[in-house]
Amino acid sequence: MNGRFGGRRAVVTGAATGIGAAIARRLADEGAHVVVADIDAQGAGEIAREIGGTAVKLDVTDPAAVHAALGGEPFDVLVNNAGIDDWGWFTDVTPQRWRRLLAVNVEGTFACTQAVLPGMQRAGYGRIVTVSSEAGRIGSKGDAVYAAAKAAVIGFTKSIARENARFGITANCVAPGPTETPMVQSIREKDGKVLAAMIAGTQLNRLGTTGEIAAGVAFLAAPEASYVTAETLGVSGGMGLGA
């Protein structure tokens, strides 16, 4: 298949909706065969049929299931996108909410990366892109747990990049700002003022689109990004600059 991902196999987690679905579409449009992995089997199936990919029902918090699903035939590209948020003031956060967010956002990234790495190492090639967040770099009011989780995957990615450079594997993060997704819609419904403040914190004064995030991921996942590793690419309308 033509395109810069022609002949490549990619897996995108959390790909049934939002940013993950946009990434799956973008990689498929550029020639990749995409495994659409999501706990939502119906949604994953719909995206897979649309792009000519393969759907896999996957709970990233279940390491055994992750290794069974992803540890077989090697992948050229892994996009760790599966993630959840549960916006709320830190004083209201329960230990259960804390553990749930870390399980999906951090432990899920750990499990998926560990499942695909041996195949990439044997092949001498791999691109790992993890969707973090500007919240993980600058913090986020009302989102302390999510920010902590997204900071964790940045540190994790830098370490994976160091360990695997000798195998021809790169590992990078994309850090979206506020983006028009179901997750951001939930913040709008809980407290519209908070979302307005997030948008005002960007230099472009608007929400990003899922397609804009997918473009950043596609760059880092592409063969030509061979000299880019251990980086975090902000796709956030300049949010990291502050006011």
Automatic annotation (TrEMBL):
It holds the Pfam family adh_short_C2. Coiled coil: none annotated. Transmembrane segments: none annotated. One of its GO terms (molecular function) is oxidoreductase activity. Belongs to the short-chain dehydrogenases/reductases (SDR) family. It comes from Amycolatopsis acidicola. Residues 8-177 form the Ketoreductase domain. GO terms for biological process: monocarboxylic acid metabolic process. This is SDR family oxidoreductase. Keywords: Oxidoreductase.
